[in-house]
Amino acid sequence: MDKTKILIIEDEEAIADLLAYGLGREGFETRTAANGADGLREVRQFQPDLLVLDWMLPDRSGLDICKQVTAQYNLPILMLTARSDITDKILGLEVGADDYITKPFDLREVVVRIRTILRRLAQAQALPVAEDAGPSVISFRNIVISPEERLVTKDGATVELTPKEFDLLMALLGARGKIFTRAELLQSVWGYDFPGDMRTVDTHIQRLRKKLDAAEWITTVFGIGYKIEKRTD
Ligand code: CA
After folding, report:
1. How far apart are CA 168 and CA 217, in angstroms?
2. Domains contained in the chain, number
3. Which of 14, 118, 195, 226 has its CA 20 to 30 A from that of 202?
4. Domain membership flag for residue 72
């Protein structure tokens, strides 16, 4: 089996080297980039399985890179932030980062976080196939989803969803009619509890509704959470 590839975008050489060394010792194949432009090029060329992304880079913000990467690739991102400002972390998670770690960090913690993200991703990808051994396409109302390709079409036209929006849709569709609390959705889509970021769920739901014209069927259950209406016909 090929090694899992991790791209590290970090301008502080000592930190980049430490991560590359530590992750290499854990059996990952690593590559480092010291700025955003090189990093984006390596995302295309190296085709990593996971991105470790520093939030403060000389040429571009981690936020920008995060947005750009998640819009084009289904690539999990662990953000590195030197700041303890909670707004940064919430912002990062909203634009598609999977987790964050604050500097200074313990290398072992980074490894644990990375393994958690990769495990979660593997489970998410395995799920639809296990549930449906037939053609793994889900069709619901005017929406058709191919979970393996993470492709969504509405009335035959492709809808661009971010990885998190896609996961959220899949979570809700996994149990149509069930009311999901925001905490449950956070847990299943983002994978851990992050105090005070229920807003993240709300903004993702709003975007999903907009992109899928789903105001009618992704409904808010006041004071509780969200659900997908079961089709009545
Ligand atoms: Ca930096």
Report:
1. 14
2. 2
3. 118
4. yes
Pair 109, 135 in one domain: no
| pLDDT reported for residue 191 | 75
Alpha carbon of 202 to ligand 1 centroid (Å): 30
Report the b/e string of 131-152 with b at 16+ CB within 10 A. eeeeeeebebeebbbebeebeb
Query: 23 near 6, Cβ under 8 Å?
Result: yes
Looking at the domain assignment, is residue 210 inside a domain? yes
- 73-107 pLDDT, tens digit per residue, is 889 999 998 766 667 777 777 778 888 888 888 99
Evaluate whether residue 199 is within a structural domain.
yes
Residue 198 Cα to ligand 1 midpoint, Å, equals 28
116, pLDDT greater than 80: yes
> Of 124, 156, 187, which one is at a domain's C-terminal end?
124
Lowest-confidence segment of 33-37, 161-165, 195-199 by average pLDDT: 195-199
**Averaged pLDDT for residues 13-25:** 95
DSSP H or E segment with residue 209:
helix 198-212
Assigned domain for 78 exists:
yes
Q: From CA 226, how far away is CA 233, in angstroms rounded?
A: 21
Considering the domain architecture, whether residues 119 and 189 belong to the same structural domain is answered as no
Whole-number pLDDT of residue 133:
47
Question: Residue 171: which domain range?
Answer: 127-228
Q: How much distance in Å is there from the Cα of 222 to the middle of ligand 1?
A: 42
Distance 55 CA to ligand 1 centre (A): 6
